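Marked as duplicate of an earlier ticket. Keeping the data here for the record.
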Amino acid sequence: MKQVLITGGVRGIGLAAARLFAARGYAVAVCYSSDEESAAAARREGFRVLRADVSDEGQVRAMFAEIGRVDVLVNNAGISLFAQIQDTSLEDWNRVFSVNVTGAFLCTKHALPAMLKRGEGCIVNVSSVWGVAGGSCEVAYSASKAALIGFTKALAKEVGYAGVRVNCVAPGVISTRMNDCLPPAERAALRGEIPAGREGTPEEVAAAVLSLAENEYITGQTLGVDGGFAL
């Protein structure tokens, strides 16, 4: 049985992906940083739940030592920041990048050796439509998600020869807790810009993640799951 590790996997897109991979027959492990309530709920659903701050290499190393084999890594853990650039502190900027980019780097770094040794494996990074198009008042978040797209392309070239595939999804406006922080008027305006006419669901993003994990001839790609928002 293949095992998938989903970071930030106890709610939202991560939890939807965990459920979908489990239904597909995978052994599912999820990690979280601080949301104990959601972690407890994920345990009750039967998922293997590990606690780790993905921006801390010591915690990431310990997590991979505990989990063992990982066939599919989904780098989903992320945080947002809604602020104008002049109001963004260096601490804010570094925190966004430490989770969204460094977290993906560290988890990939510790997952890859075993994948390379086996000659197979798959990594799916979760970026954002803002990483493609940029978002006003979300410069730090947009820059971090754009970095994930470049990370995906470069790594796919680096490890493809060894049978490891690396892809990325770029969700648009999705009905998750992260977007609940947006002012209602702005959220309504965003919905008005979506050709599909509505927000997406975590399950729709999860379906894209699973598809990229299982199609063995797709690598280095960024799949927009945004209802046409970035057109």
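See parent ticket for discussion. The mean pLDDT is 96.
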